[in-house]
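Because discrete structure vocabularies remain unfamiliar, we turn briefly to a single example record, giving the amino acid sequence and backbone structure tokens:
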Amino acid sequence: MNIGFIGLGKLGLDCAEVFAESHTVRGYDVQPRTSTSVLICDVDQVIDHSDWIFIAVPTPHAEGYDGSQPSSHLPPRDFGHEAVIDA
């Protein structure tokens, strides 16, 4: 199976490399990326040569909710959805 990833940041690249252990994976990101297991391509090649495509967009966090420190004492907050809507 041919898998495509659009978005190879913190989440996308790690997921793509796990899939690449068993599948051919092509990936694209607006920032230059390198990988020993994912074929880095332009977005058209990812689309044209993939049976499944995952899109990983940035997950914006409010200050204090980025995972760098515990936030269980803070009021619950939802993530911003602007990046998903824009994609």
